[in-house]
Amino acid sequence: MVRLKDRYLLVSIVYTDLLASQQAKKGNNPPVSDLLLYNQPTTGELKPQILLKAIRNQVASLFGDCGSGAVDRSLQVKYLSPATSTFILRISRSHYRLVWAALSFMDRLPTRDGRPCIFRVVRVSGTIRKVEEEAVRRAKLLILAAKDEAAGNKNAGTALDALFRGGSGGSSKDPARNLTMLSDQDDDDDDDEGSAPGDGEASYDD
Amino acid sequence: MDGRKSASSGKASGATKRKEPPSGTGNARGGQGNNGQAKDGRPPNRAPKRVKFHDARNIRTQPSDAALEDGRLDLQRFLNAREFEIKALESSMRKCKAVNATRVFQQVPRAMRRRTASHNVKRIPKRLRERARKEQIDDKTPTIEARRRRPRTTRARIRAETAKKLGILAARKKKKMLDNTAEGAAGTSVQPTVETRAPRPKIRRNTLNQAPKIKSKFRKRQINKTWLPTHVWHAKRATMTEPSHPLWRFAIPLTPTQKCYRPIHRASGQKGAVAWDMSYMSTIGLYGSDEGAERVLRAIGLTQESIWGGRGRNWRAGARKWTGFLSKQRKEGRRDIGPATIIWNPEEEMDLTHPKKSQRQIFIRTHPSCFLELFQELLKLVKMQTPQLHVEDLRFEIGSIEITGPGSTETLLGIIQPYYDKPEAKENQARIFKSLDGVTNPASLPKDALLAFSAMDPRLGHPSKSNKSSTGSVSSTLLDTLTNWPIGENPKPYGLFSRDSRYAASKLPSLKSINRRKGTGLPGNGLRVTAVDPPIPVILFASRPATDGQAQGTWTLLAPWKCILPVWYSLMHYPLSSGGNPHLGGLEEQRQIAFEQGAPWFPVDFPGTEAGASWELEQREKRLRDWGRRPKGKRVEWRSLDLGAGRKGEIGDGLACDFEYLFRLPKDDAQKETGNCDASVPDPDAMQIDGIEYHEPREVSHSSLLMVQHMEKASFNALFSSANLGKAPAYSVITVQLTFVTRGIANVCARIYRLPTRAPTVIPPSTDTEVPATPLPSPGLPSDLRDHWLANLPLKSIHPNVGSSRGRQGRRQQQQATRQFLPGTNLAERKSLLARSLVTTSLPYPAPSATQKDIGGHPFCPSEEDLIGFVTSGSFSLSEGKGTAIGSISAERAFGALKGAGAKEGKLCVVRNAGESVGWLARWEAI
């Protein structure tokens, strides 16, 4: 039986204009931790349609007509949460790398006067369920990291650690949390050869 | 449960929930993320299901304001936004799962799934019926019962009217009967003055028995066959033989409807149990004096002196059974009939005051395909003795169940409880049986062990509980029992031999009355034996697999025909300690297990017997039918098969194990040959059942195939080991197991060749392609074909002094020398070598056909002179992990092969499937 095979990408938007935003907020407010600055909410102007259009444009510019044709039909936004700057994309299994590449090359929000940011693919999976589980896990980790920071007031390095290694660096005292990070395995076994996505972090660090 | 609830409530509550803002934030709206279709609730004219799916797949989100406090970043808001996200995602996962919840029919266990009539809610478990009904109403599945539908044709209308009238008549009759009995009870009932014995079914001496009297409702369906006692149970769960083509006059389950190839393999060897209703096996009773019985048994092939001497004492006393091949004497020599098990009834204690000549009773249990042959042979022998013995046909008197697998002993212990009124009266053999707790392989019992005792009605203890202790290690007492087998010197006569006790056992109380008795007691308690429960006489024996080894043995339970059904029900419900219930097996499974154990299966693997020959003939017809049904382009065209070396066409008949061709026997028509068959051809009139004449469809009329005779391994070995290499009797075949040396899978009818003999003249090794000097059997075949085949042997098994110089290694080296450069050559040299090789190697034009030198890299099949036999059953064997097969080869030609090449290399052969041109190297072993 013919089956459509998809990949789901969990992407988080990480804002990179820390200094600018820090200065903007400085005024009369108490200083905000870096973790919050990286994970700022996204403006409500970013609608799914706009995001899709931006990705398609990027794919077209990177991979030409062939790439955009491959990606065009199957790309879909399953979930876009501006409050947490997270979204889930669906794309056919054979072409998800094009989308991933396009996301890596996007450095600004695709809105008017878009802020500089990076689109970080955190998880690739064959089922939306696993992607959702990962999103839940990351949200939990972020909550813990934010609480840690609020309590101990750590420096920016741990904020980045919390971001990129899911908090394992910042809270090395807690082995359980580390363990959760280590068990971050890829769950799709039916992958075609050579395109095993691995976990998002590892690929990103490369 | 909660998932289902949320699914049903999701439609209503989800829709309302989305309208009100989520907790924590003021203005967040759900459904904003994706396409916003379901924002305003359900569209009026869209299918509700779609809305439901959409709802479930939508993940709620918050706008960015939710994470900001008046446009500023705030820790608390940040945390809240994350929490909201977690909740939204989790609820989405839950809802999706609930929505994806499958239909009820997909939830029932695999064994209960039905494709046909899957719209019938009555076919699923009660707990799911309500949901199924709701689903059907939802998706408008038509739920009309065919029975209730208004008749549309005239015929159907008339039928319906008749049925209605008959119903009215029956109701009237019933009412009348009720009235009568009420009157009779009211008035004075007449006391019977004479006590009469209830009529037992008749068993006549020296004639065939009649099938049991059947309810009139089922009689028409059993005109030319008999149902097994468990027929109705099996018919629901297994593929039965076609109604118009019964097998051996029985409706036999062929294979369960559920896929079970691998489960049966596992259950028969590693974990679990497989059970068969083998009531179709025929039992013949032989009665008469001790000496007469011995003469008769000797005449049907029990000629080994050992069983009549001291070693057979136990057997003749009734404490052991004997299993082996029976044969009959013909003008041209002895001819095998089929396998049989023979049990003696122990003698009664001799009364010293009245010394009487002892009358012995013997059961001969045999396969139904050779029953008639054996019965007639026995009849003849019995009448020749003085004083005469007599035989009884006990086919429908004694039924049997076979069970194999590691859980088989445990199952039997669970369902068969010894019958005794007082603990003192417990029979010794029953005590031994109960002490077998912990046996995981029936083959570990003493060889040919047999137990006979009276058992309780298994329904009294139903449902039987799992016996947990049987998983434990083997205790020392069990080992003692297994080695000593304390059965005692003189067992009492067995109940199963007595017609009265068999008859008493068949009068079991009704299930209704047993249930009523159970209802009065506490739940979970078994019932005690009372006067109305008759003892069931059983005989249990364990058989070892035909091939010696670690394979599982088989338990056989003999019991009166009428008692098989209650035993079967309990058996199939026994909870094994390893989990699950015993598996149901059909004929195919029996064959599969025998095949995996490397044992031949009667009658298929014995074409040298009458039963095997008739099986083969029937299969030929069937294969021809199937072949003819295929379109012309998709069936094998036997004449155009290219065997290479200029040979065209399949050898013999491609759809048959063509032993006639092998032995150069004339092929004959069924019509022509009916007259001059030998006397053992069944007389159709002899097999009358219920007075309805039934024409045996598989009358063995091909006298040519009947000339082929089976030769046992022992006599084959004896002939081979005798110094002068005696000549095998004409047309004799031996059954062999074939194991492929490298690759390959054989199917039925595959051809078996011996390796060709080497050409007599010495040919220099470089003349591979030259025309050999001496004329060869087939001009196109290379003279060193044998070496080509031997080169296929894996290196370790190559005989040290045979073909080593021209083995696979030698050839490979030769080839590589031309292709590879020596390690020291420099670039210039390499170039020149390459150029030279390009110039000098001339490719022949036109290119030779693929089958001129070899067949796609495989050596040619040997020529027709080297054909030695055919495969009777073969496939991939799960126990071996590669293809094996069982076949029959001509004893004479096998001798030839062994003589030429010795006992090791002579057993190498080539197996080629019918219709294919590539053969595979295999090794045969007589079994």
TrEMBL record, chain A:
<comment type="function">
    <text>Component of ribonuclease P, a protein complex that generates mature tRNA molecules by cleaving their 5'-ends. Also a component of RNase MRP, which cleaves pre-rRNA sequences.</text>
</comment>
<dbReference type="Pfam" id="PF01900">
    <property type="entry name" value="RNase_P_Rpp14"/>
</dbReference>
<dbReference type="InterPro" id="IPR002759">
    <property type="entry name" value="Pop5/Rpp14/Rnp2-like"/>
</dbReference>
<feature type="compositionally biased region" description="Acidic residues">
    <location>
        <begin position="184"/>
        <end position="194"/>
    </location>
</feature>
<dbReference type="GO" id="GO:0004526">
    <property type="term" value="F:ribonuclease P activity"/>
</dbReference>
<protein>
    <recommendedName>
        <fullName>Ribonuclease P/MRP protein subunit POP5</fullName>
        <ecNumber>3.1.26.5</ecNumber>
    </recommendedName>
</protein>
<keyword id="KW-0819">tRNA processing</keyword>
<keyword id="KW-0539">Nucleus</keyword>
<dbReference type="GO" id="GO:0000172">
    <property type="term" value="C:ribonuclease MRP complex"/>
</dbReference>
<keyword id="KW-0378">Hydrolase</keyword>
<dbReference type="GO" id="GO:0005730">
    <property type="term" value="C:nucleolus"/>
</dbReference>
<feature type="region of interest" description="Disordered">
    <location>
        <begin position="163"/>
        <end position="206"/>
    </location>
</feature>
<comment type="similarity">
    <text>Belongs to the eukaryotic/archaeal RNase P protein component 2 family.</text>
</comment>
<dbReference type="InterPro" id="IPR038085">
    <property type="entry name" value="Rnp2-like_sf"/>
</dbReference>
<dbReference type="GO" id="GO:0033204">
    <property type="term" value="F:ribonuclease P RNA binding"/>
</dbReference>
<dbReference type="GO" id="GO:0001682">
    <property type="term" value="P:tRNA 5'-leader removal"/>
</dbReference>
<dbReference type="GO" id="GO:0000460">
    <property type="term" value="P:maturation of 5.8S rRNA"/>
</dbReference>
<dbReference type="GO" id="GO:0030681">
    <property type="term" value="C:multimeric ribonuclease P complex"/>
</dbReference>
TrEMBL record, chain B:
<dbReference type="Pfam" id="PF08170">
    <property type="entry name" value="POPLD"/>
</dbReference>
<feature type="domain" description="Pop1 N-terminal">
    <location>
        <begin position="78"/>
        <end position="288"/>
    </location>
</feature>
<protein>
    <submittedName>
        <fullName>Ribonucleases P/MRP protein subunit POP1-domain-containing protein</fullName>
    </submittedName>
</protein>
<dbReference type="Pfam" id="PF06978">
    <property type="entry name" value="POP1_N"/>
</dbReference>
<dbReference type="GO" id="GO:0005655">
    <property type="term" value="C:nucleolar ribonuclease P complex"/>
</dbReference>
<feature type="region of interest" description="Disordered">
    <location>
        <begin position="798"/>
        <end position="819"/>
    </location>
</feature>
<feature type="region of interest" description="Disordered">
    <location>
        <begin position="179"/>
        <end position="198"/>
    </location>
</feature>
<feature type="region of interest" description="Disordered">
    <location>
        <begin position="1"/>
        <end position="67"/>
    </location>
</feature>
<dbReference type="InterPro" id="IPR009723">
    <property type="entry name" value="Pop1_N"/>
</dbReference>
<feature type="domain" description="POPLD">
    <location>
        <begin position="554"/>
        <end position="658"/>
    </location>
</feature>
<dbReference type="Pfam" id="PF22770">
    <property type="entry name" value="POP1_C"/>
</dbReference>
<keyword id="KW-0539">Nucleus</keyword>
<dbReference type="InterPro" id="IPR055079">
    <property type="entry name" value="POP1_C"/>
</dbReference>
<feature type="domain" description="POP1 C-terminal">
    <location>
        <begin position="733"/>
        <end position="925"/>
    </location>
</feature>
<dbReference type="InterPro" id="IPR039182">
    <property type="entry name" value="Pop1"/>
</dbReference>
<feature type="compositionally biased region" description="Low complexity">
    <location>
        <begin position="803"/>
        <end position="816"/>
    </location>
</feature>
<dbReference type="GO" id="GO:0000172">
    <property type="term" value="C:ribonuclease MRP complex"/>
</dbReference>
<dbReference type="InterPro" id="IPR012590">
    <property type="entry name" value="POPLD_dom"/>
</dbReference>
<feature type="compositionally biased region" description="Low complexity">
    <location>
        <begin position="1"/>
        <end position="15"/>
    </location>
</feature>
<dbReference type="GO" id="GO:0001682">
    <property type="term" value="P:tRNA 5'-leader removal"/>
</dbReference>
<keyword id="KW-0819">tRNA processing</keyword>
